Amino acid sequence: MSRISRMVAESKLAPIAAFPLRLAAVGGYNVRQIGASARWLVNSREHTNYTFNLAPLNREHLAWFIANVTGLSVAEMRGYFREIEEDERLRNVVEMATVRSARRRLADPVPKWHKRLGWYALVRSMKPDHVVETGTDKGLGSLVFAAALLRNESGRLTTIDTNPESGYLIHGEYADVIDRRIGSSIDVINELSNVEMFLHDSLHTFEYETAEFECIAPRLTPRAVILSDNSDVTAALPNWAEKTGRRFAYFHERPADHWFPGGGIGVAW
Q1: Helix, strand, or coil here: 86?
Q2: Domain boundaries, the chain
């Protein structure tokens, strides 16, 4: 049979003979995607900024990624992941705020952290005094930063959004370490100083993202880490990192049982 297979593979019939195998591979993948999509449509209420769990191996890759960025052990990163995943107080705040919100029909009450596990581990590892986030949205990421700052027992978060109704998840002790600012991120950044961690998560265009990096640059401390929630779409952060003599790395998410292909974390340091 191997001799016959070799003969077919070397003949003009090869594409026809291989077609059923190729069709089965594509069909199997599409069936899995349709199944994940159908489950999401039934079980989730989200319509934007999707949340999900990471596939187990992808979660392990994220732990190694943050360990390499920080220079700390992967075991420590795994510990930080478990810390936020087991934080019942944080989970209860998210669930309560979601249920009580006017947007509760467009959000899932049970938090799923995905790449925000990495955000949390970075703050816990680096212990920054001042974190800045552009693009608050409902405030899930803000809560993750705040939870890490509270565990560190120091530091504050400045979160910026143009929408006055953003940040509806921010409640309780987490609000005590968060300064919410409404307005243009560029205008607000111009008022800041001594920033030790910066996350771009606002208007996702190459031009605007680059403008934020150029604006924040003179306000960064020497040990600052810069994150982008948009590095899977544009090269704004790696371009800026190279221009300013920084290192750059990228992690891409692999969601567990979700139709969305995942975003990622771009880091410059």
Answers
A1: coil
A2: 2-41, 50-268
Residue 171 phi/psi, 5-degree rounding, is -145, 170
Q: Regarding the domain with residue range 50-268, which homologous superfamily does it belong to in the CATH classification?
A: Vaccinia Virus protein VP39 (3.40.50.150)
Dihedral sign from CA coordinates of 49, 52, 58, 62: positive
Q: What angle do CA 184, 142, 238 make, to 5 degrees?
A: 65
For residue 240, what is the enclosing H or E element? helix 236-243
- CA 114, 115, 116, 121 dihedral sign is positive
Say how far apart CA 17 and CA 22 lie, in whole Å.
Answer: 10
What is the structure's pLDDT at 3?
83
Q: Which of 121, 175, 120, 163 is nearest to 138 (CA)?
A: 163
pLDDT in tens, 22-51: 899 999 999 999 999 999 999 999 998 999
- Terminal-to-terminal C-alpha distance of the chain: 56
Report how far apart, in Å, the C-alpha atoms of 180 and of each of 56, 62, 221 are: 34, 29, 21
> Which pair of structure tokens corresponds to residue 234?
């544009």
- CA distances in angstroms from 154 to 84, 90, 123, 151, 157, listed in the order given: 17, 18, 11, 8, 10
The CA distances from residue 113 to 6, 82, 94, in Å, are: 49, 11, 11
Q: Which two tokens stand for residue 163?
A: 């929408």
Report d(CA 165, CA 117) in Å as an integer: 25
pLDDT band at 1; cut points 50, 70, 90: low
What is the pLDDT, as a whole number, of residue 4?
Answer: 81
Residues 214, 193, 231: CA angle, nearest 5 degrees: 40
